Amino acid sequence: MTKRPLESDVDFIRALAELLRENDLTEIEVKREYGEADALDVRVARILTVVPAAAPQIAQPAALLGAPAPQNHGTLGSGDPSDDPGVVPSPMVGTVYLQPQPDSAPFVKVGDVVAEGQTILIIEAMKTMNQIPAPQPGRVKRILVEDGSPVEFGAPLIILE
Predict the structure, then answer these.
(1) Are 132 and 109 in contact (CB under 8 A)?
(2) Is 126 left (phi over 0), alpha (psi -120 to 50) or beta?
(3) Which of 2, 19, 91, 98 is 20 to 30 A from 156, comparing alpha carbons?
């Protein structure tokens, strides 16, 4: 195994960080092979604060015909859900699934009590199903996402009380 100068690795990492900033990226991961038993694995990431855009309000056809409205996932408050102390933010960009299989019961419903670490939903990212655990125990106060909807990193998913 040959020794690489540490300074060149530091310069390489600084260059990756600069690429990250210049190209407005959130993450870069690189593996440099120096020899058969010598490599450098580097992951440079930054955390961005994402402010979800307000979705346009569209009248549901059932509501227009006087039929019962679709079930709400919780009581809507007047404040920003991101400010709630019990908010569970999305740890990644992807597609949310509220149940393990299309025809099965949801992981949680409004009013359910969850334990810390219990799976509360799945986010599919790059064809990988990622189970999202409850960060603390509590009761599900609101579910802020719809099944199959896309989410951004940091977007509020569920509120626990």
Answers:
(1) no
(2) left
(3) 19
Distance CA(141)–CA(33), nearest Å, equals 50
Name the residue among 151, 142, 156, 154 with its Cα closest to residue 108.
142
Integer angstrom CA distances of residue 59 from 63, 67, 70, 74, 122:
7, 12, 11, 18, 28
Instruction: Give me 112's structure tokens.
Output: 């359910």
How would you write the pLDDT of the chain (161 residues) with one tens digit per residue?
Answer: 445 556 777 888 888 888 878 877 777 888 878 777 777 788 877 765 555 555 544 444 444 444 444 344 444 454 677 778 889 999 999 999 999 988 899 999 999 999 999 999 999 988 888 999 999 999 999 999 999 999 999 899 999 98
* C-alpha to C-alpha distance for 98 and 131, rounded to whole angstroms: 10
